[in-house]
Specification:
There is one protein chain. The chain is of the alpha+beta class and about 375 residues long. The chain has three domains: about 120 residues, Alpha-Beta Plaits (2-Layer Sandwich); about 70 residues, Structural Genomics Hypothetical 15.5 Kd Protein In mrcA-pckA Intergenic Region, Chain A (Roll), CATH 3.10.290; about 130 residues, Pseudouridine synthase (2-Layer Sandwich). Helices cover about 20% and strands about 30% of the residues. Strand 7 and strand 8 form a beta hairpin. Helix 1 crosses helix 2. InterPro entries: PsdUridine_synth_cat_dom_sf, PsdUridine_synth_RluA-like_CS, PsdUridine_synth_RluC/D, PsdUridine_synth_RsuA/RluA, RluA_PseudoU_synthase. Responsible for synthesis of pseudouridine from uracil. Its EC number is 5.4.99.-.
């Protein structure tokens, strides 16, 4: 095992513009919807986006075109195969970090140290201020326009917006396919044998640091609670929670240090499956939610479960206001993707990547030692 010469201490990122460019949503009217009015089409198909009055406002603002022509009449009759375009107006996205640290890079992949607060892919309020945008901008800055249009690095897995640490991105189609298969294989193996031993012959292994509420009694805990979804306001596809009827998930938790004065425990978590919010759900399921988690409480359920109440008021662009209940993207908890071991997608050599620990997630010994530096090793 030796230090990898391909490792570079590099930080990149461009400041965010004040406003994003808005978003253009395209639809083709199916023949079954021929004869509907413009407002009927949008308020029925996208009722989760805005109430009826909100869609009326968007149409009257001139934000919707039909076959290339702006239409402000909400009662305009639609024909089958007509092309509709809705332009969501530009807005100022919430303030988030913009700098990214490169932990490892070669011709096939790049590993980044994602800061807490930065979203990985576009979604919700964050359409421009994402890791993906910074990757695109970085390629355009380094390469001629034609070359930068060919491809750019893309994340092959997600980290929650409030989670920091290692984010793996593919630079080629082959690497993307193989790395995605690594993650999928780990999850499917858990599904095939929920009690399987961790480690084994997996192609990729992820280890996290987390700070949880309360003092864990056991030094090591294996959690195999299934994870499913429930209806929840502000989360269109449903909220992930601990559910007996959910999909298999497996986490291995190891206590690193207990703090009796602060009533919290520093833990290391190795995950074998990749269910959304798995660590947050599993640790809360055993009665030790992440310290500062605004969403999940003991039992792996949401803090607020008022799923029947919908706020019918709408914002300037006609859409619903941000939900008052906590949602998965809210930050405040302490979770860090600390170490990653993988078989290189083209060379098959073992790559070891470490993201420096935030001070709050260091043990007393680590805090009193020299600051941990980034390290990447490889062994053939």
């Amino acid at each position: 095992m030796s230090n990898d010469s391909r490792t570079q201490s590099l930080v990149f990122g461009l400041p965010w513009p004040e406003l994003n460019d808005g978003i253009f949503y395209n639809d083709v009217v199916p023949h079954s919807d021929s004869g509907l009015t413009l407002v009927e089409f949008y308020s029925r198909k996208y009722k989760h986006s805005a109430p009826l009055q909100g869609w009326l406002q968007r149409i009257q603002n001139g934000q919707i075109s039909v076959d290339g022509r702006v239409v402000k009449d909400p009662n305009a009759i639609l024909s089958g195969d007509s092309v509709l375009v809705y332009h969501r107006l530009p807005w100022k996205e919430p303030d988030v970090p913009h700098l990214l640290e490169v932990l490892y890079e070669d011709d096939d992949l790049i590993a980044l140290n994602k800061p807490s607060g930065l979203q990985v892919l576009p979604g919700g309020l964050f359409q421009q201020r994402t890791v993906l945008t910074q990757l695109c901008w970085s390629v355009k800055k380094q390469n001629p326009p034609l070359k930068s249009q060919e491809s750019h690095p893309v994340p092959v897995h997600r980290l929650g917006r409030g989670t920091s640490g290692i984010l793996l991105c593919a630079k080629t189609k082959v690497a993307k396919t193989r790395l995605a298969a690594y993650f999928a294989d780990g999850t499917s193996l858990v599904g095939a044998n929920r009690k399987a031993e961790l480690g084994g012959t997996r192609k990729i292994s992820k280890i996290y640091r987390a700070l949880v509420t309360g003092l864990l009694g056991e030094d090591k805990v294996v959690i195999d609670q299934p994870i499913g979804t429930v209806r929840y306001p502000g989360v269109a596809k449903g909220l992930y929670v601990a559910s007996p009827s959910g999909k298999p998930a497996l986490s291995k938790v190891e206590v690193l240090e207990r703090d009796g004065k602060q009533n919290c425990t520093l833990v290391q978590v190795e995950i074998e499956s990749g269910r959304p919010h798995q660590i947050r759900i599993h640790l809360s399921f055993i009665g030790h939610p992440l310290l500062g988690d605004p969403l999940y409480i003991a039992g792996g359920q949401p803090r607020c479960f008022d799923s029947e109440i919908v706020d019918e008021s709408y914002a300037q662009d006609g859409g619903y206001h941000k939900p008052t209940n906590p949602v998965p993207g809210d930050c405040g908890y302490y979770l860090h993707a600390h170490r990653l071991v993988l078989s290189h997608p083209t060379t098959n050599e073992m790559i070891y990547i470490t993201a420096p620990l935030p001070s709050v997630l260091r043990t007393s010994y680590e805090a009193n030692s020299l600051p941990e530096s980034m390290s990447v090793n490889s062994a053939k």
